[in-house]
Fold this sequence. Notes:
Strand content: 5-15%
Low-confidence stretches: none
Number of helices: 12
Shape: globular
Distance between the termini: 31 Å
Mean pLDDT: 83
Strand order of the largest sheet: 1-2-3
Oligomer: single chain
Amino acid sequence: MFEFNLCCADFKLTEALMERWWKKTMSFHFPEFELGITPLDFVRLTGIPIGGGRKLPTIPVGLKKRHYIGYDSTYLSCVKENHGARTAAYEQAVRERRKGDKVGVWDSSASVIPISFLVHYINSRENQNNEGVWEELTRIFLLWCIGRFLLGNTTTRVSKGWLELLQNFHNLDEYDWGSAALGNLYDCLDRWTTSDRDEMGRMWNIVEYWYYFYFRNCQPFLRIDETIINNQCIYPAILLFRKDNHRGQVDRFKHSISVARHQIDMRTGDAVIWQPWRDDEYSGYPEVLEARNLSYQRVVFYGVRVRG
């Protein structure tokens, strides 16, 4: 099991870092040095293990419309019903000239589904008796996890093809989700720096937190003891920056791109914490040891294969 607790507090810092990603070296280039995101960084930040599982299977895309319509009727009927109720409520509000939440159009033949549809359905089941829908609710939650964090191509939509894998979600722990997520993070950085800068999907959020642990500047003020930060006494480390740990810093969303670039340009080799995870209390965890070993090897990380 692993916990999703990712949010991006400083988009401009993240953007300035991604500008320095170099596809050929798979690293960020700074004025005096280069530095990459290693498997150890990924595991210590997210708590998602790498290695030890099967590769994710091929995910079907480009299917005929009838296949996507079949996904709707088989796996997404509850979500579709919830969407219909929201649509009816919005139309009623329009007729009565009241404000209402605008709802997108449901397209059963589309190969993707908006993540917002999944979120609204999951929220609608809060404090409800879910005994009769637990299996579909679990499948929808896992689809949200994949699309929103682990392996999404964008931040707004998720492929229905993942439902093929989620038919039997009882064996999902057999797969190596960490390797696929890290491989797709590399692919996201490559794509963003070479072509499409409009979409930043997948787990690009961790780039910001990776920077905090190596450079210790531009980060939000935290309520917790400074010794906890210095000694990395939390796992996964990204939990240090949960919203309830932030301490009254009103401008943390407002760093300009020019300020972020200037701060990065000022980083010298002497200012880097080169081994932020060295000899911490979690260094003996099996998944941390495995990630450390992989970080000292030449390893090929795979992305998610698709089948047209």
